[in-house]
Amino acid sequence: MMCRFAAVIASCLALFGACSAAGAADFDYRLVARPLARDVYAFIGKTEDFDTHNGGNIVNTAFIVAAQGVIVIDSGPSLRYGQQMRRAIAATTDKPVVLVINTHHHPDHFLGNQAFADVPIAALAETRTEIAADGNAFAENLYRMSGDWMKGTEVQLPTKTLSAGRLEIAGRVLRLVALDGHTRADLVIVDEASGVVFSGDLVFNGRAPTTPHADVAHWLSALDQVEALTRESGFKVLLPGHGEPASDAAPIRQTRAWLKWLTATMRDSARAGLDMNEVLALPLPPEFAGLPVAAAEYRRSVGHLFPAAELNALEAPK
Q: Quick one: DSSP state of residue 181?
């Protein structure tokens, strides 16, 4: 009996070891360059939260093949992602990467910078400041959530400051629109040649928005400006920071609707004297209940936004 028991244990350990080795040896984001327009490609992430299965591949990144080189827009959540992204770009074109742009300072958009340390990395001035201040803490948090997918990842700071206006790079003309609301600095990029608008995390599509650094009033104003870009005659595709690309403004309207509902819920709950636990227990409306990670993002947003709503309710004239 003991021999049989020992054999079963040995088999289980061997199976566990084999599974662990297979998982550890994989770490493949399986990045597929999806064409958005001529010479414009995106890697579309999952509409999930960070975990040890997706390795943080919940973000949309992109690249433009210009006449004289490749422009990368956001570098992903880890060194491994950046390295695999670079290999996927090389499989698409033999032109060198000449510039990486970080749209804002959230970690899934810049922690792949390390893989592009040999080329200029650019961001708005405030984004550079925020990455320098918070980058290491972000990286540590992603280690906790995504595990060994993050192995070797360190913060690579942007080396170049961008400002709003026209940017000509590698024979391509980009229009840079400096906004804020999702964070203190959110860069929207318009590729004039293709009509593709890269919105960063100002726009989510088919996924509940995140709000850890949000100024919702500013965000709503920024969405109006992004929507105006989609009304231009040259507009073809909108690439949100998370979720599927779109050929219209539907993702903008969805993001706006979520933010307006969230703001109203926080305000009305505070005015009604609800405490945070009561607000957390409120049901999601049918419009949003089926959105991926909606329940989790709502809970996080209550923590981010409800204290200010309570303060405003207390300070409001009686």
A: S
Tell which residue, 113, 296, 278, has the closest CA to residue 209: 296
Q: What confidence tens digit (pLDDT) does each residue in 52-72 have?
A: 999 999 999 999 999 999 999
Rounded to whole angstroms, the Cα distance separating 147 from 134 reads 19
Using DSSP's 3-state secondary structure scheme, residue 171 falls into coil
- The structure tokens 């318009």 sit at 190
- Map residue 220 onto helix, strand or coil: helix
- The pair of structure tokens assigned to 129 is 């400041």
Of 269, 299, 304, the residue nearest 284 (C-alpha): 299
Beta bridge partners, 160, equal 122
pLDDT confidence band for 315 (50 / 70 / 90): confident
Sign of the CA dihedral running 13, 15, 20, 25: positive
pLDDT at residue number 318: 65
pLDDT for 294: 98
What is the band of 283 on the pLDDT scale with cuts at 50, 70, 90?
Answer: very high
Domains of the chain from N-terminus onward: 23-249 (3.60.15.10)
DSSP state at residue 232: S
Angstrom CA distances, 211 to 70, 259, 270, 301, stand at 31, 9, 18, 6
Of the candidates 94, 151, 137, 85, the one whose C-alpha atom is nearest the C-alpha of residue 112 is 85
User: Where does the chain have alpha helices with state H?
Assistant: 2-26, 79-92, 125-146, 216-230, 250-271, 276-280, 286-289, 294-315
Q: Name the CA dihedral angle for 84, 88, 89, 95, rounded to a multiple of 10 degrees.
A: 110
Whether residue 16 has pLDDT greater than 90:
no
